[in-house]
Design brief:
About 55% of the residues lie in helices and about 10% in strands. By secondary structure, the protein is of the alpha/beta class. It has a 5-stranded parallel β-sheet, sandwiched between helices. Helix 2 crosses helix 3 and helix 10 packs across helix 11. The relative contact order is 0.11.
């Protein structure tokens, strides 16, 4: 099974001729990562539940890949219905499953079933629904919700009761699609939500969304979510060795990880002619796509148009070492000495650097780390 090169992954990041997002290899993102995900969906029978992950650091391009898959599926309405859920948009909701069900209800042809479940669940968690119901539907009145205020007293019982019905309601709603249809549920930015809400939704996905003809596609920072999970479950004595990453791997059947990006991948479209600046930038380790973009904006936005290495150094410290950047802004004398060494000699001897940084300017506990990070940039040794 294959996908032709002209398949419609028409998200802007992929269609611009000079976009560094159109990378060649699936592990690094771009259109080929979208194809890899779609192939996984197509090769698994529709009756088999699927949960897939797009993992990576913040700024690595997860949303772009998810958008590419969304455009592919939306172009085939006979095969796929798409529900995009931006978890961060609803971060103030007490229970993320309420707005999620409402978004799913909009994508499915069968109305009211999930809407009813969403209303019941919201009531069962003590009216903690924010304004999602009021914002997304006019069929439930404020007065109708408020008369359930007494539910606070037995919310735990109602909470369990409504969740027992939830699995069947979702399954029935998904089966209302055409014979070959699937619902593709894309969840983005869950790692930006409060830990307890992100963990609650992940748990609900594991229990209630393992349903035939439902494809769940998660875009998240797996390191952050693993930490959230461990903070939630590890303190309990019954699970002292709880592994957050293992939980995520059980939640998804397959995942693709978008790594950080080496300079050579984005040098031309982001920086143009680097010139002498390359001597600084090429010593950096691979960085997330968005971080490179911000470095490029700072690099091009500086008033110093002559000294490329100085500009590169300032851009890197501003974006990658904000603590050091604040120090240099506060201590103009130290900043001037560093700048002078770059301008005059294009290098900064390690012993001089250490002398500048340890001369009482930095707190003792910050000296070593700052020196090590700067030294890694100013020499060709990459940090461990």
């Amino acid at each position: 099974m294959d996908i032709d090169s002209d398949e419609p992954f028409k998200y802007d990041d992929f269609t611009k001729p000079d976009s560094p997002r159109n990378w060649a290899e699936p592990p690094t993102g771009g259109i080929d990562a979208c194809k890899e995900i779609v192939l996984r969906i197509r090769e698994i029978p529709a009756e088999v539940p699927i949960a897939l992950g797009v993992f990576g650091d913040w700024g690595s391009g997860k949303t772009s890949v998810l958008k590419g898959v969304e455009h592919y599926c939306a172009a085939r309405p006979a095969e796929y219905k798409v529900c995009w859920f931006d978890a961060w948009k609803y971060q103030n909701e007490s229970n993320l499953i309420v707005p999620l069900l409402l978004e799913m209800e909009q994508a499915l042809p069968t109305k009211d079933k999930l809407l009813e479940s969403a209303a019941k669940i919201a009531k069962a968690v003590a009216l903690g629904l924010g304004d999602s119901l009021l914002r997304m539907t006019a069929s439930i009145k404020v007065e109708d919700i408020l008369k359930y205020e007494s539910i606070v007293l037995d919310r735990s019982i109602r909470y369990v009761s409504e969740y027992r019905e939830l699995h069947g309601k979702i399954s029935d709603a998904v089966r209302s699609l055409s014979a070959k249809g699937r619902l593709v549920l894309i969840i983005d930015d869950l790692d930006r939500c409060l830990p307890e809400r992100a963990v609650a939704l992940l748990t609900a996905l594991q229990v209630h969304f393992h349903i035939p003809r439902l494809v769940v596609l998660l875009g998240l920072n797996d390191s952050v979510l693993a930490g959230y999970l461990e903070e939630t479950y590890r303190p309990k004595e019954s699970k002292p060795y709880f592994d957050g990453r293992a939980f995520l791997q059980k939640l998804v059947q397959w995942s693709i990880h978008l790594p950080s990006v080496p300079l050579e991948t984005i040098a031309e479209p982001f920086f143009g002619n680097l010139g002498d600046a390359q001597e600084i930038l090429k010593r950096l380790p691979s960085l997330p796509y968005r971080t490179w973009k911000r470095v490029a904006v700072r690099f091009k936005g500086t008033d110093d148009v002559k000294n490329a290495q100085v500009r590169a150094f300032l851009a890197v410290t501003d974006e990658c070492m904000p603590g050091l950047a604040r120090l240099l802004r506060e201590r103009w004398d130290l900043s001037g000495q560093l700048r002078e060494h770059f301008t005059v000699s294009d290098t900064l001897a390690p012993e001089k650097l250490k002398e500048l940084l340890s001369g009482g300017v930095l707190r003792a506990e910050a000296q070593y780390e700052t020196y090590e990070r700067m030294h890694a940039i100013l020499t060709k040794k990459k940090p461990e």
